[in-house]
Amino acid sequence: MVKNITITQSTNGIHNGFVKLTGSGPSVYADSSPAPTADNNDREGWLFTKTSGAEKFNYYFYGQGNKPITLAHLNNVFFTGAIDNYVSDASVPFVVIYTKPTGVGDAGAWYHSKIAYALHNTEDIQIGEICLFSCIGEVVDVPITYRQVNLLNKIITGDALRTEEILTISIQSDSGAADTTQILIQDVGFQALRGNHKIKRNIKLVV
């Protein structure tokens, strides 16, 4: 089950939150094995290096405020990162959105529905290139200039009705990826529109 997430406010004017690897980080990378580390080439962000078996990472970064966000409110989920060893489509991280369980027709033990967004194999991914990976819609008002790569494959488990309230959002890797998989994640975020309120989170992962 997802732990409580603590996201500290950033003061650099670009990100409106950050998570430290050795501070509140363990709550964000819950269920990840091995834990992320600092990059050995001094790049910003968290580095995941798979060594064997079913190892993978899950970075959870949404926590509800005083009002819930539904699937209808959500405009986008995005992250910036690089794939350092591209062996197959399983080498690329993906987005998963979980909705709150209702006790009726839940698709999982702790969620009602989940929607995954993955890379289509027609996209061009260069080794070590930091890209802005995006799903659901257009990324707006995000001061990031990396090349945008859209996650066009949508996999739905459960009802995924637009009225469902979001429980958590995560960036994940594939447990079936090659043992040499190495993935760097620098930023995670989402955007939502609820009435006249434009909600924008751009969270930096720091060591």
Number of strands: 12
Strand content: 35-45%
Largest sheet: 7 strands, mixed
Distance between the termini: 24 Å
Question: What number of domains?
Answer: 1
Q: Could you give the order of the helices and strands?
A: EHEEEEEEEEEEE
As a whole number of angstroms, the C-alpha radius of gyration is: 16 Å
CATH top level is Mainly Beta
Helix share, percent: under 10%
**CATH third-level topology:** Jelly Rolls
CATH architect. name: Sandwich
Given as residue ranges, the uncertain stretches (5+ residues, pLDDT < 50) are none
Average pLDDT: 91
| Class based on secondary structure composition and strand pairing | mainly beta
How many helix segments?
1
Shape designation: globular
Descriptive account of the structure:
With 207 residues, the chain is an all-beta fold. It has one domain: Sandwich (Jelly Rolls). It has one helix and twelve strands. Strands 1, 2, 4, 7, 8, 11 and 12 form a seven-stranded mixed β-sheet that branches. β11 and β12 (197-206) form a beta hairpin. The longest helix is centred in the first third of the chain and has 4 residues, at 25-28. The chain starts with 16 loop residues before the first strand and ends with a strand.
Name its key features.
207 residues, mainly beta, Jelly Rolls, 7-stranded mixed β-sheet, 5-stranded antiparallel β-sheet, 1 helix, 12 strands
Secondary structure topology:
Elements: E1 17-20, H1 25-28, E2 46-49, E3 58-60, E4 74-83, E5 94-99, E6 114-118, E7 131-135, E8 148-150, E9 153-157, E10 166-172, E11 182-194, E12 197-206
Parallel strand pairs: 1-12, 7-8
Antiparallel strand pairs: 2-11, 3-10, 4-7, 4-11, 5-6, 5-10, 6-9, 11-12
